[in-house]
Design goal:
316 residues, alpha/beta, Elongation Factor Tu (Ef-tu), domain 3, 7-stranded mixed beta sheet, 14% strand, transmembrane helix, MlaD_Phospholipid_Transporter, Phospholipid/cholesterol/gamma-HCH transport system substrate-binding protein
Length: 316
């Protein structure tokens, strides 16, 4: 049986230990020495907290790990080295995007695949991009609100300063007097309201009677409206027009001197005759008063009546 010296065994154990250490270190870094992987790079101005060992995903599926992050040059750009274990093919125009996965969790690297152009090869530098995380989105949404709040605070501060400037001692005294007057007016209004309520309570029956009368009047008015609505307005207007025409005819006859009334108004001779007749009637009545014996012949002794002498203003 072949004997192995202590030195050989020690060397073998050292090699095994070295392999285990290297393998464990690479495992902790996210590398698997047994897998066939491709290495890619991306340059960033700021990796936003991305660390080695972070997952590399394509469409949400983990396909690799971030291996290292180093400064690329003196300008401060950062070179991220990551591998892709999957044999999924994509072009060298695909974007390596750093994105956040939550408030507490860190950052991951996502490959946004593109299929235009040549396929990405081991060692290619892919275009880079930083995705706005939740905090960035919240900050972006809060910036307009912050501006509004700051403006409101400034306006409030200006208003307070203006109020302090306006409200001097005299103004404060005037405000106190105004508030006191308002309180007095409120008390008077309360007293007046109580008086009105008492008056309404005392005259409730009268008010009810008045309301009933108004309701009866309203009912009668409705009935009158119904009656008026049933009247033949056309016939009423026609009768009124006929009556107006008759009056117009009478007026025309009077104006033209037709008929007795027209002649009386238009013929001067008729007026003269009427006046003369009236005068004669007056003289006749006067003569009957002065000489009644001329018209009544009665004598107990048969005495002859005196001779009649007509008045001087007789019309004969």
């Amino acid at each position: 049986m072949l004997k192995i010296s202590k030195e050989v065994r020690t060397g073998i154990l050292a090699i095994i230990a070295l392999v285990i250490v290297i393998g464990g270190y690479n495992y902790l870094k996210g590398q698997n020495l047994l897998d066939k992987n491709r290495n890619f790079y991306a340059l960033y101005d700021n990796v936003e907290g991305l660390t080695p060992g972070a997952n590399v995903t394509i469409n949400g599926l983990t396909v690799g790990k971030v291996i290292s992050i180093k400064f690329a040059d003196k300008t401060g750009k950062l070179k991220v080295h990551f591998d892709v274990v999957s044999d999924f093919e994509f072009s060298n125009k695909s974007i390596a995007k750093v994105y956040g996965i939550g408030f507490i969790s860190g950052k991951n690297l996502a490959i946004v695949p593109s299929y235009d152009g040549p396929l990405a090869k081991d060692g290619d530098i892919l275009p880079s991009e930083i995705d706005n995380g939740i905090m960035e989105l919240v900050t972006e949404r809060l910036e307009p609100l912050q501006a509004v709040i700051e403006s409101a605070i400034n306006d409030t501060d200006s208003l307070v300063k203006s109020v302090n400037t306006v409200l001097d001692k005299n103004t404060q005294k005037d405000l106190k007097d105004a508030i006191a007057n308002f309180s007095a007016i409120s008390r008077e209004l309360k007293t007046t309201s109580q008086s009105v309520n008492g008056l309404l309570a005392e005259n409730k029956e009268k008010l009810n009677g008045t309301i009933s009368n108004f309701e009866e009047i309203s009912t009668n008015f409705v009935k009158l409206s119904d009656s008026l609505s049933q009247v033949d307005i056309g016939a009423l207007v026609s009768n009124f027009e006929n009556l107006a025409a008759d009056f117009e005819g009478i007026a025309n006859n009077l104006k033209s001197g037709q008929g007795t009334a027209g002649k009386l108004l238009q013929d001067d001779q008729v007026y003269v005759n009427l006046e003369r007749t009236t005068k004669q009637m007056e003289l006749l009545l006067e003569d009957m008063r002065l000489n009644p014996k001329r018209y009544v012949h009665f004598s107990l002794f048969g005495k002859k009546p005196k001779e009649y002498n007509p008045p001087k203003d007789s019309l004969r």
